[in-house]
């Protein structure tokens, strides 16, 4: 029996690193969904532009996933009824789905990349808060 298996801090650390890795994928998808930002992608060949966009998406997605996961863990710890750490990945799935759906809708309706990304970030944070509320409610 491993004594460190039941430590909550290690489970939360594993969740944070996993969410950061998943953020890389979400960031790459989001980078391909929005039109290229002129100050990010210089005029290169189309293949090089796609590569640069994906690289920026992966890098920004890593940090976004890392910060989001730390935010989710701290928010979960501040609740009177702490949800299980196993409920947090589902929370991340709903937040990423809400963010990508919002991004797709805003891009589809022709909003700028900045407005689309900011609105998807806001909705993902709202989805996190609502999902955490439901996770705490189910935990009781």
Task: Give structural notes.
By secondary structure, the protein is an all-alpha fold. It has one domain. The protein has helices spanning 8-33, 46-77, 88-108, 113-139. The model has no long low-confidence stretch (mean pLDDT 86).
Short description:
Helix content is 76%, strand content 0%. The protein is mainly α.
Features:
transmembrane; membrane; 0% strand; transmembrane helix; mainly alpha
Shape: elongated
> Which structural category fits the helices and strands?
mainly alpha
E-strand count: 0
Multimeric status of the protein: single chain
Biggest sheet character: none
The succession of helices and strands, N to C, reads HHHH
- How helix-rich are the residues, as a percent range? over 70%
Structurally, the number of domains stands at 1
Range of strand content = under 5%
Rg over CA atoms, rounded to whole Å, is 17 Å
Tally the helices.
Answer: 4
Mean pLDDT across every amino acid position: 86
Spans of 5+ residues with little confidence (pLDDT < 50)?
Answer: none
First and last CA, distance = 28 Å
